[in-house]
């Protein structure tokens, strides 16, 4: 027998068979009904208004949920409603799935919010003499689970909490199988996680509302490990020489990130107990150093890592100031020199599921290049050094207030600084602009030499670009340029065949595409094809914090990526030397 | 195409189809081929000699396994051998599954050894420049797993261990999904677990070889918590009055058991690092106190527990001196007053799968009675007090050297003591014998009064049974007797309908059945139907240590057991008062 279901709120009409589950029919109709608890009737997030049609009796749990949500008596849970006749319904806005765009640029698909950590409010029945069920079983029964994992400390707190709360508690579940927290009363609104980008130079910690999928606030700092070495290689070498140094590096990063977390939570009056999960994106070496894992094998041939994918770790093992049962997920590394920051970035751009041929380039201290075609998924890396982050440059600085981040020359040189402050130095994008402009007007020759053989070019009274600075930029550009050229060459692709180039990294939108092409940092293609995606490592970490599927997908796609080692390819030196000349000449290899 | 497979060693002939897996055909033939690694070709425990038939080329792993096991070139792994023609094979004894009898009395089915913790020797390939796989991936690849859980500490030791061992390591896996230990070289032979019985009065720790399923050695001690209360109720009350007391009780048991473990390991020169798993059977209160879980809810109506089933806990959380990643499995409780010791006992006697009607009685400080019929599975408990363990008896003592454990009277009274030592006191079975003999000869009246109204009956020069002692025994017997009678009454069973009665508890084989029936402690049925199964809690713990299936089955069957509360039944008082008279009169209720 076929019935009709009118969805008045969405102006849709569908047909159904006797006994069909209303939730399934709504999903089939292409409406993103919220199924937070996976159709278990526990979360009360799929209530629909029955305008016409049968109103089956509510059980006790449904009555409670209805009361909690302050809905009238003609609302029913779609995940518990079996269709028995013609229906007309309204789906309220609160029952529609929250989605979020991970990258602000909007180049990727909206992400369905399905975080590993979910919180549920439970009104439990007290045990009675005829059925003296154990406290833990009351919770298991509520979730219709035969058993739930629970930490011993939490188990021992359970009886007191049940008494205190009158059996009205909020349970935080990890992947619907492990109790992470039990709290008195309804605390479902307080559910936070941290997306963390551990860059070689810069650290970012973002506080995320796991219910809404929104960013609450962010904290940025320098990577304190810079005291032990500016780049990855120098830190690996430091760790290598003495096991105590590995501890120093680990302590340094943990303390700095912990301080950032504390400031972030304090500023937003979020209690550390209400932070249950964190996702950490860093390159392979940063990941190892964070975990205190020896990096010796990253330092010598065949340059292999100790781990690629790890299951969620207890955050307490890393001494992070969040809930004691909190989890820390380290975004899986692709290979020794293409780390979790890149996996996160690829996730954030949906690259694994895109049709076409794309380049993904992360411009950082280490330059990672990923080529995705219909047939292949290739990653490589090239050591650009810290010049793009203003390091080893006489007037270089990070993108902080006072940094020259943009330079233009029409009649005269105009400079823009971050925060419009008085110029204090030059950051990466400013350097690229300035060098490109000086090449353009002949002050710098394509070979990199200052034309008049002076030692420096004045930018302001106090700030100049030296010949040595130009050499640093030249080496950094050449590393990226030769990497791109070589990977295209190996797979017999012309740059014109690229459907798009994604530029990740601290440069963000401030990088002037024409100037980058002028230096040869980017292949000279249609600028419309180039998209700046900013800190895609952080964006990916956010996606992995909000979606269990994203974790599964990432772990699956990184297995398909092939790694190519440029450094060990005898041809690479030729490419590199040739790439030292500024510009993107088509006769270059 | 049908082929014949002759199994010469077992004098069997079976038929097979092209491509059939030899291992499957051997299992189908009813031969218990060892499939330790679940047909993954990793353990090398299913080698068979190919006497006639094709000898496919060995891959590197098979060659290594063959070398390790020192077998000749015509042996092949049955789990990797696809049948391509007629075959004649020999299955060597080493390829036949180890089985073990859990109860020494042999009343139960042999247990297939399939412990949660297994150790595998792995010869890994070192990473090479063309394939710089991470260290953890090398292990994952060896086990053909996409990912394996690993503790952070272990991960950080991994690189050093691989170097030191030349990539020849032994990996201990928990449930084939979690790395518990990585050891240098082949240490597969060193794989131990502990079966632990936490009785209210007595503690037993047994060291088990997880490869062979054999008992290595045993250690017995008094439960040190007796300092805080002789019986369960007094300890619960003690814990109840002050949260610090709960800690005291927990510390006491953990320290005592840890000491027992240390002595056991030292005596048998087993390193604590080679102990990976422990199974703990105790009653519900003992389980709670061990874990430091509040027992308040066990003290007041409706007398409910905090937990029933728990997943394996980290043994370090209980500070037990075994491997730092070791597991502790607490045998699931049935209800508040029928604990994991009974679940273990039921497992050990195969009661859940027996056809017929059985009683299972655990005679301890708490008397637990389980009735299993074709239709029902019922448990109840009754407070017998510690008299059967020699407590609260003027000359009472535990079953230690010098304890009178047996008394007979032909012409004169003859006494037997443990270790044939000079009599120091009387233990439970001795008390039952003596009281029964004194009732027989009229010294004690059925009402429990000493016939000549004297205050005591001499047993030896120094040892006597007082009127107060008899009252203690009377109360203990009445508790059990009224419990049995009531449960039979409720389910309308006559004692003659019982197919068997299993008696568990410290009494062991020393209990004289006729004397026990004379007192009314056991129903007066055919003595042939009564089986003493000794410490079945320990036996069950052993089974649960050796078999993953046993854990799953136990967790499943305890859900089916119904609990009946005798204490809250208004009829129970009548039964109890009536049962105070010694003997098993058929006119008693």
How would you concisely characterize the structure shown here?
The structure is a homodimer. The first copy, chain A, is of the alpha/beta class. Helix content of chain A is about 30%, strand content about 25%.
Radius of gyration of chain A: 28 Å
Individual helix count of chain A: 15
Head-to-tail CA distance between termini of chain A? 70 Å
| Overall outline of chain A | elongated
Q: What is the count of structural domains of chain A?
A: 4
In percent, how helical is the residue content of chain A? Answer: 25-40%
Structural class given helices, strands, pairing of chain A?
alpha/beta
Q: Would you report the number of β strands of chain A?
A: 28
Largest sheet geometry of chain A: 6 strands, mixed
Biggest interface, residues from each chain: A-B, 47 and 48 residues
Strand order of the largest sheet of chain A: 14-13-12-15-17-16
Assembly level: homodimer
Mean pLDDT of chain A, nearest integer?
91
Low-confidence stretches of chain A: none
Quote the beta fraction of chain A.
15-25%
Describe the structure.
2 copies of one chain form a homodimer. By secondary structure, chain A is an alpha/beta fold. Chain A has 4 domains: about 1-95, Roll (Ubiquitin-like (UB roll)), CATH 3.10.20.30; about 100-185, Ubiquitin-like (UB roll); about 190-330, Domain of unknown function (DUF4445) (Nucleotidyltransferase, domain 5); about 350-589, no CATH class. Chain A contains 15 helices and 28 strands. Chain A is elongated, with a radius of gyration of 28 Å. The mean pLDDT of chain A is about 90. Chains A and B meet through α3, β9 and α4 of A and α3, β9 and α4 of B.
């Amino acid at each position: 027998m076929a019935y009709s279901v009118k969805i008045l709120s969405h102006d849709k009409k569908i047909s159904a068979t006797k006994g069909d589950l209303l939730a399934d029919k709504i999903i089939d109709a292409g409406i993103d009904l919220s199924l937070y608890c996976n159709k278990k009737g526990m979360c009360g997030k799929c209530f629909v208004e029955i305008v016409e049609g049968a109103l089956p009796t509510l059980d006790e749990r449904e009555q409670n949920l209805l009361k909690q949500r302050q809905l009238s008596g003609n609302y029913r849970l779609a995940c518990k409603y079996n269709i028995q006749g013609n229906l007309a319904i309204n789906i309220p806005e609160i029952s529609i799935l929250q989605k979020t765009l991970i990258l602000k640029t909007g180049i990727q698909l909206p992400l369905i919010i399905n975080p590993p950590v979910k919180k549920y409010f439970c009104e439990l029945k007290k045990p009675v003499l005829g059925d003296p069920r154990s406290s833990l079983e009351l919770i298991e029964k509520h979730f219709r689970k035969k058993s739930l994992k629970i930490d011993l400390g939490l188990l021992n707190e359970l009886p007191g909490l049940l008494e205190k709360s009158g059996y009205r508690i909020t349970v935080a579940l990890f992947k619907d199988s492990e109790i992470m927290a039990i709290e008195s009363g309804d605390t479902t609104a307080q559910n936070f996680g941290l997306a963390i980008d551990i860059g070689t130079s810069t650290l970012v910690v973002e506080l995320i509302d796991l219910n809404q999928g929104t960013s609450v606030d962010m904290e940025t700092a320098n990577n304190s490990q810079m005291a032990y070495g500016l780049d990855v290689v120098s830190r690996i070498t430091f760790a290598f020489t003495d096991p105590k140094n590995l501890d120093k590096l680990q302590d340094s990063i943990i303390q700095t990130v912990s301080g950032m977390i504390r400031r972030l939570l304090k500023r937003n009056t979020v209690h550390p107990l209400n932070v249950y999960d964190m996702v950490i994106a860093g390159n392979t070496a940063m990941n190892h150093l964070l975990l205190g894992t020896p990096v010796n094998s990253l330092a010598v041939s065949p340059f292999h890592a100790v781990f690629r994918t790890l299951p969620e770790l207890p955050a307490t093992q890393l001494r992070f100031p969040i809930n004691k049962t909190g989890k820390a997920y380290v975004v899986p590394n692709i290979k020794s020199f293409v780390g979790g920051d890149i996996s996160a970035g690829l996730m954030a751009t949906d690259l694994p599921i895109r049709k076409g041929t794309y380049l993904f380039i992360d411009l950082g201290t280490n330059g990672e290049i990923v080529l995705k075609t219909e047939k292949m998924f290739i990653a490589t890396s090239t050591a650009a050094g810290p010049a793009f982050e203003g390091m080893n440059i006489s007037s270089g600085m990070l993108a902080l207030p006072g940094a020259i981040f943009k330079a233009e020359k029409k009649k005269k040189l105009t400079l823009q600084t971050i925060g419009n402050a008085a110029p204090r130095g030059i950051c990466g994008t400013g350097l690229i602009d300035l060098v490109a402009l000086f090449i353009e007007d002949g002050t710098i020759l394509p070979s990199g030499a200052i034309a008049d053989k002076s030692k420096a070019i004045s930018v302001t009274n106090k700030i100049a670009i030296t010949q040595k600075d130009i050499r640093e930029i030249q080496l950094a550009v050449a590393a990226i340029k030769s990497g791109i050229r070589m990977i295209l060459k190996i797979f017999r692709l012309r740059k014109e065949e690229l459907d798009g180039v994604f530029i990740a990294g601290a440069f963000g939108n401030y990088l002037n595409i024409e100037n980058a092409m002028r230096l040869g940092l980017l292949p000279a293609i249609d600028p419309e094809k180039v998209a700046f995606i900013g800190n895609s490592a952080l964006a990916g970490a956010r996606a992995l914090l909000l979606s269990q599927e994203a974790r599964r997908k990432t772990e699956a796609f990184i297995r398909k990526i092939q790694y190519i080692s440029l450094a060990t390819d005898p041809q690479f030196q030729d490419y590199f030397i040739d790439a030292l000349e500024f510009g993107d000449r088509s006769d270059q290899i």
